[in-house]
Amino acid sequence: MALNDELLEILQGPTTRQNLSPLGEASLALLNAKIEAGQIKTLGGREITGAAAAALVTQDRTKIFLVAPFPKLLPEDAIDPTLAGIKV
């Protein structure tokens, strides 16, 4: 799922206010494989159960936010890529 460039210009991480950029295709594929295997939890402790159409990553590469079907930008919905084993 391609995100509109204008939307990407205004979206920011909810706590750091850093710009967000799309997660690369290879990283998204790995993330979705780990979601399907039940290996991904949010920072709030919730297990992710459905594949993401896309994902956004913070500028410092420390948080991933899923897009399914819209960006979920609550702090507790973030995924830590290090804990998830996802290289961003």
Strand order of the largest sheet: 1-2-3
**Cα distance spanning the termini:** 18 Å
What is the mean pLDDT? 92
Approximate strand percentage: 5-15%
What class, by secondary structure content?
Answer: alpha+beta
Shape verdict: globular
Describe this structure in words.
With 88 residues, the chain is an alpha+beta fold. It has one domain. It contains three helices and three strands. Strand 2 and strand 3 form a beta hairpin.
Topology summary:
Elements: H1 5-10, E1 20-22, H2 25-36, E2 54-58, E3 64-67, H3 81-84
List keywords for this structure.
three-stranded antiparallel beta sheet; 25% helix; 3 helices; alpha+beta; 88 residues
Quick overview:
The chain is α+β, with helices and mostly antiparallel strands. The chain has three helices and three strands; from the N terminus they run H-E-H-E-E-H. It has one domain.
